[in-house]
Design goal:
The protein is an alpha+beta fold. About 35% of the residues lie in helices and about 20% in strands. A hairpin with a 7-residue loop joins β9 (about 265-275) and β10. It binds histidyl-adenosine monophosphate (HAM).
């Protein structure tokens, strides 16, 4: 019978067959953060709407079109988190983390929500690994963050990775640059898309992100922020680039990289993979020196990034499901309780064992043993004896039932699995 319900548009189930690959990404990230002195933080799935409106920026697509916003029973406006940075800065200020030794390095992992038009690599519920270094303006912090993500993608074996690196300068220099860009856009208004034209005044930088052919042509002749950095910002950017290069991480300079969130100052970066289609961004981030104060905390410089788990998994392609069972126990009807008792002992001793719980015939159980990918089967007989079968070679040998556990462990060690 076909199910009446489907997962909502833009969402998906993570099935058991998908979870090993996901766990590998999570474990690699957890290891990388631990080695670099980050603490793991968890924040709520929803926050006050105002946090994201102020944090991410009123004129961004995220805030204007993509937030899942609802009213709770008390009439408060809440929003399913579209990203982590604003929430982590909220937590930093709320818990007085500015009193801790700086910087505070935080990371998290979990679901995020954006009401975007679903397509390959773009979901309404997706997962990010997010990392933030809050409380330093050192260019080495930017470099450390970038190197960490580069190394994580390399460790995971993500193919075709490219790093694009730019700088947006400080808010002050950007004000002057924005005016210059506005003049350029107004002078070419006729060639722009409606969307870009309607945002010349509120968010001219987003014109760099447009796919519209007329707009793209206009933007090719536009000045970029990289040409307009003041001396301090230029020095900061030079130091970031030098430290990234020193670590052997290649990058492409990109003066058109603006990112879809308003809080960035100075460094911005994005990692893409040519193994992905139109949605090629694996992850990105940058410096956001004004955000903590914007949210009511103390003046606090910070830098961070987020990477999309689904994008990483897509770029990696179908992973071979690793076989993980040490043994499958096959038993005739009279030995089923014995089978469960052996399985329980084995599991308590840390051995991975499964057995039939659906009343299959012995032949059916052998098939199931095969399908399970177990390295070996323990085959119990009516007379209380047992055989150990190597599932690959089909070789069998007698097994002392009092000693099954030790035998499986010994076999496992021999196989080095
Ligand atoms: P973002 O570029 O909006 O940055 O998202 C980071 C990554 O999340 C993207 O590169 C992409 O891999 C993934 N992603 C975003 N939207 C979707 C979607 N609809 N479906 C699937 N994957 C998606 C941020 O969120 C910033 N908070 C990053 C940051 C942290 N900046 C500073 N600190």
């Amino acid at each position: 019978v076909a199910s009446k319900f489907k997962a909502p548009r833009g969402t998906f189930d993570v099935l058991p067959s998908d979870s090993a690959a996901r766990a590998r990404v999570y474990e690699a990230a957890a290891g990388a953060f631990e080695r670099a002195g980050y603490g793991r933080i968890e924040t709520p799935i929803f926050e006050e709407t105002e946090l994201f409106a102020r944090g991410v920026g009123e004129s961004t697509d995220i805030v204007q079109k993509e937030m899942f916003t609802f009213e709770d029973q008390g009439g408060r406006s809440l929003t399913l988190r579209p990203e982590a940075t604003a929430a982590l800065c909220r937590a930093y200020a709320e818990h007085g983390m500015h009193k801790l030794p700086q910087p505070v390095k935080l990371w998290c992992w979990g679901p995020f929500f954006r009401h975007e038009r679903p397509q390959s690599g773009r979901f309404r519920q997706f997962h990010q690994i997010d990392s933030e270094v809050i409380g330093t303006d050192s260019p080495l912090a930017d470099a450390e963050a970038i190197i960490l993500l580069a190394d994580l993608l390399a460790e995971l074996g993500v193919p075709g990775v490219e790093l694009r690196l730019g700088s947006l300068g400080s808010f002050e220099t950007r004000v002057a640059y924005r005016d210059e860009l506005r003049s350029h856009l107004h002078a070419n208004e006729g060639s722009l898309s409606d969307d870009v034209r309607s945002r010349i005044d509120s968010n001219p930088l987003r014109a760099f992100d447009s796919d519209h052919p007329g707009t793209r042509e206009v933007m090719e002749g536009a000045p970029t922020m990289l040409d307009r950095l003041d001396d301090d910002d230029a020095d900061h950017f030079e130091a970031v680039k030098a430290a990234v290069s020193d670590a052997g991480v290649d990058y492409v300079l990109d003066g058109t990289l603006v990112r879809g969130l308003d809080y960035y100052t100075r460094t911005v970066f994005e990692f893409t993979s040519d193994a992905l289609g139109a949605q090629s961004a694996l992850g990105g981030g940058g410096r956001y020196d004004g955000l903590v104060a914007e949210l009511g905390g103390p003046e606090t410089p910070a830098v961070g990034w987020a990477a999309g788990i689904e994008r990483i998994l897509m770029a990696l392609g179908e992973a071979e499901e690793e076989q993980s069972l040490d043994a499958f126990i096959v038993a005739p009807d009279g030995q089923r309780e014995m089978a469960l008792s052996l399985a329980t002992q084995a599991r308590r001793a840390g051995v991975c064992v499964d057995l039939d719980l659906a009343g299959r015939s012995e032949k059916g159980q052998m098939k199931q043993a095969n399908r399970s990918g177990a390295a070996r089967a323990v085959i119990l007989a009516d007379d209380g004896t047992a055989r150990l079968r190597d599932m690959e070679t089909g070789e069998e040998r007698p097994l002392d039932t009092d000693d099954v556990l030790r035998e499986i462990e010994a076999e496992r060690r021999k196989a080095g699995s």
